[in-house]
Each structure stands twice: as C-alpha cells, then as structure tokens.
Design a protein that fits this description.
The chain has 207 residues and is an all-alpha fold. It contains 12 helices and no strands. Helices cover 77% and strands 0% of the residues.
Amino acid sequence: MSTQANNIDEYIMELKGQLASNPQCANHYYNLGVAYLHKRMWQEAEKAFLDAVDNSPRMSEAYVQLGGIYLQRGDVDGCLNMNRIAKDCRPQFAVPFANLGFCYLQKGDVDRAIVNLKKAVNRDPEYVQAISTLGAAYYSDKNYEEAEKNLKKALDLAPAFGPAWNNLCLLELDRGNVEKAAEYAAKAEENGFTVADEVKEELNAAK
C-alpha cells in the first residue's frame, strides 16, 4: 500500500488517480485488483485484473488472481484455464502449478494433480500449501507413504498448517490408528481447521 494512503479506500482512490493519468499501467491495475480483493469486491477486482492483462498480456500474477476469483465462484474450469495461461507466461513460477494441481484434485484427476504439484514443489521446495496438497493427492491415490512424507514435510515448515494435520488424521484413520488420528484431529482444530463432523463421529465410535 502507498505510504501516503491511510487505509484501503484511500489507496484505491490513489490508484484510480494514477490510472487517470497513466491508463496503460498494468501494475496499477494489478494493485487495484488486489485492493478490491481485500474488500471482497470480486467484480471490481476481476475487471482490474482483466485490465492488467489487457495492458500486459504476460502478467502471470494477474492470471493467477483471476483464477482465484473464478474458483471462489465455484468455476474450477475457469481457474484451470487462467492458471494454464499463467504458467505458460512464466514457466518457473510455482503458484500456477500448485493451483492447477489443486483444481485437478477437485476434479478427481489425481494423476494430473500430482504431476503439477510436483512441478510446483520443484520450483519452490518450501511452498507449504503445494507440499500439503501433494500429500493430499497421494492420500487420495492411497499412496500413504508418500502422503505422510509430504504432509509431515509441510508441517516441518509450518507447524500451524491445519489442513495438513487434518489429512494426517484421515490417513491414520484409514490405517486403523485411531489414537494417532484423534491426536492429529485435535492438532488440526487447534490450528484453525474444522474437522468434518463425520470424521469426529468415526473417531468417537472407535474409542
């Protein structure tokens, strides 16, 4: 945020003023889109990011943000398309590969999910969300050894990452290790992740 702006609304007005005198500045449009995201003004953010790529067609970050908006609307295919463009614009950028992996996992295409998540982690070996999602993908594929390895790696990097604790809980439930699963479920909730009611019921029934 600009040092002259006291809050997000002032920052938006400042960016609009800058765009009035320089209407082809993709960076200003991108920053405006991010500001609108902070206010959860999805349509305005989408327009700003579209203006950004109109003026800078290879701005990978703007395509990633558009993908996030489409995913928020439930449009997984739209998110996929935006992140495909993003990774083509910037092949060493880890984020679009992680997003592609997440989308493919949502669509049940575990093999493609794993391929893209591995590419994300290769590009950024400390990308916690990608590592954790890779663990989730391996779990979906019933490759429990690789799932556990990646989920624990994510937690080594970010011990408060609730989704990884939750997936470890599910993994241990599948293995029949109820006590360990309950421990991981508690860790997930301690770190802000809401464990599904059916999982809690299964844990309680197994006690």
